[in-house]
Amino acid sequence: MTTAIAHDLDRVLKGSPYVAYSYAYPHKTAYRALPEPLPLKDAWQEERQDSLFLYLHVPFCEYRCGFCNLFTLSQPEESLPRRYLEALAREAAANRAALEQPRFTRMAIGGGTPTFLSMDELDELFRLAENLLGAAPREISVSCEASPATLTAEKLALLRERGVDRLSLGIQSFNPRDAHAMGRPQASRDVQRALTVLRDADFATINLDLIYGGSTQTRASWLATVDEAIAFGPQEVYLYPLYVRPLTGLARFASWDDQRLALYRAGRDRLLEKGYQQRSMRMFSRGSPVEGPAYCCQDDGMIGLGCGARSYTRSLHYSREYAVRSGSVAGILASYIGRSDREFEYVEHGFELNADERRRRVLILSLLQASGLERAHYRRRFRRDVLDDFPQLLRLAERGLAEIDCRRLQLTASGLERSDAIGPWLYSAAVRRRTEEFQWR
Ligand SMILES: C[S@@+](CC[C@H](N)C(=O)[O-])C[C@H]1O[C@@H](n2cnc3c(N)ncnc32)[C@H](O)[C@@H]1O
Ligand code: SF4
Asked: Is residue 5 part of a domain?
C-alpha cells in the first residue's frame, strides 16, 4: 500500500500493476477505532444468521518470511498457543451468546500457519467450533492452511477426520535459492516430505500457493516451479505476485513490475495449457468451478475469531488492530489474551459500510473474478444499474481492459493482469485516504 492510489485511469495504466491485492474491500488498513464500543449483539441483530462463514485465525508460524505482512508471530513462547486458544474459546462463547441461532455453512482455518499447532491444540480448535459455536465441520466445506515444515501425516489425518476437505499448502517456490531470496527459509526436504504425506491423504481439494517476482527468479526457474506444482496434480493453484510491504524487510529492485508481469504471463499460460481455468488474477483451478473465498463472502455474514480475524456484517466490518512488526503483533496478542469475558462482548475497531461502500464491495470483488459481474445480480441486489452507479467502468471498456454487454461486465486478459491496480482505482475516496494514512507498525 505504499504506492499512492491513482483515481485517474490513465495514471493507473501508466503506474504499477501492483498497487494492492483487493481480496477484501475495504482492507484492514482502512479500519479505525469505532466512536464507541458496540455490543456484538447489536452488530448482529439485524443480520441473517442462517448461512454464516466461520473463520478461525491462528497467528503463529515456524518462521517469519521476509515478505509476509500477515498478522502472525514466529516461534512463540511455548505456552502462548495454549493461552491463545483459551482466549479464543472465550471469544467464541461471547459470539455464541450474541447470536440468536447461528448456522455455519462454511468454515476456514487460516493464519499464520494453523498446522503450527500441536495435535491437541488443533483438536481443541474443532472442539471449540463444535461445542461453543454449534458448527458441524463434518457436514460443511472446511478449508485449512498449512506450511510444509509443520505438516505431518498425523495432523493431516486429524484434519481430515474433523471434516477439513480443502487443504492449502504454501510452497512459494520449489527452488531453494528463489525461496531463500524471497525471505522464506524453506528446506526442500520439508517440501517433498509434505507433498508425500499430502498425496496419501484424502482431501477433495488441494491448493498450492506459489509466489513470483523474487530477485533471483528467472523465467526458467519460475516455470520449473509451476511445472512441479502441476505435476503434483492439485485441484487449485494460486499464483501470488510478490509484494513487499512496509516493515517486511525486503527491498525493491529495478524493473520489478516488468519482471512480475512477464512471470505472471508465463505461469498463467502454462496453467491454461495444462487444462487449468483462470478464476481470477491469482486463482487457477481444474474441474468444476470452485467459489473463491472472497466471492463467497459477498452475501454471507462472516464470524472471524482470533486476533487477526475479520468479521463482516452487511454494514460493519471489524477486527482487532492490525500490525506487522513482531513487537506490535506480540503486544496485540498479549492484550487479546488478557481481555476479560465482558470485553469480548464488544466490537471496538472496524469500518462502517454505507450504501455506496456496500455497492463498491460487490462491484470490486465480482469484477476481479474472471467470470465478472452479472448485471442482473447487481440490479436484484441494489435495484440500480451498476453503470449508473459507476459510469467510470465504461472507461475500462474503452481501454480494452473490460468487455461490457447487457448481461455482464468482465475483465479482459489485460484487465485481469491489472486487477491489483483496477481494484484500488475503484476504492472510495474515504477508503483511499484511510489506507494511505495508515500508520504501519
Ligand atoms: C497464510 S499463508 C499460507 C500458509 C503458510 N503460512 C505458508 O506460508 O506456507 C498465505 C499465502 O499468502 C501468500 N503471501 C503472503 N504474503 C505475501 C506477499 N507479501 N507477497 C505475495 N504473496 C504473499 C503466500 O503465497 C502464502 O502461502
Ligand atoms: S508466509 Fe506463511 S509461514 Fe511465512 S510468515 Fe507468512 S504466514 Fe507465516
From this structure: no
Asked if residue 122 and residue 37 are part of one domain, the reply reads: yes
For residue 247, report the distance from its CA to the centre of ligand 1, in Å.
Answer: 16
CA distance 305 to 311: 8
Q: How far is the CA of 377 from the centre of ligand 2 (A)?
A: 36
Assess whether 117 and 242 both reside in one domain.
yes
Ligand with minimal distance to 151 CA? 1
Atom 3 of ligand 1: nearest residue by CA position: 170
Is 242 part of any domain? yes
Number of domains in the chain: 2
Question: Of 262, 296, 330, which residue constitutes the final position of a domain?
Answer: 296
Q: Cα torsion for 195, 305, 294, 13, to the nearest 10°?
A: -100
CATH number, position 227? 3.80.30.20
What is the tens place of the pLDDT at every residue in 144-192?
999 999 999 999 999 999 999 999 999 999 999 999 999 999 999 999 9
Rounded-to-integer distance, Cα 258 and Cα 16, Å: 9
For ligand 1, whether the C-beta of 293 sits within 6 Å is: no
Q: Write the CATH number for 366.
A: 1.10.10.920
The Cα 99–Cα 95 span in angstroms is 6
Kindly give the distance from the C-alpha atom of residue 250 to the centroid of ligand 1, in angstroms, as a whole number.
15
Question: Mind listing the pLDDT tens digit for each residue in 381-421?
Answer: 999 999 999 999 999 999 999 999 999 999 999 999 999 99
Domain final residue, candidates 277, 296, 315: 296
Range of the domain at 188: 31-296
Query: Do 285 and 377 have their domain in common?
Result: no
Grid coordinates of 16: 504499477
- What's the CA-to-centroid distance between 208 and ligand 1, angstroms? 11
Answer whether residue 55 is part of any domain.
Answer: yes
Tens digits of residue pLDDT in 89-143: 999 999 999 999 999 999 999 999 999 999 999 999 999 999 999 999 999 999 9
Cell of residue 329, nine digits: 503483533
Which segments of 150-255 does DSSP mark as H helices, in order?
Answer: 153-162, 176-181, 188-200, 219-232
Residue whose Cα lies nearest atom 4 of ligand 2: it is 65
| Ligand 1 mean position, distance from CA 216 (Å) | 18
The grid coordinates listed for 220 are 526458467
Q: Which cell numbers hold the place of 91?
A: 471469544
Same-domain check for residues 243 and 382: no
pLDDT at 2 (0 to 100) = 41
Q: Which amino acid is at 346?
A: Y
DSSP letter for 305, please: E
Q: What ligand has the least distance to the C-alpha of 143?
A: 1
Q: Mutual orientation of helices 80-98 and 119-127 as an angle, nearest 10°? A: 10
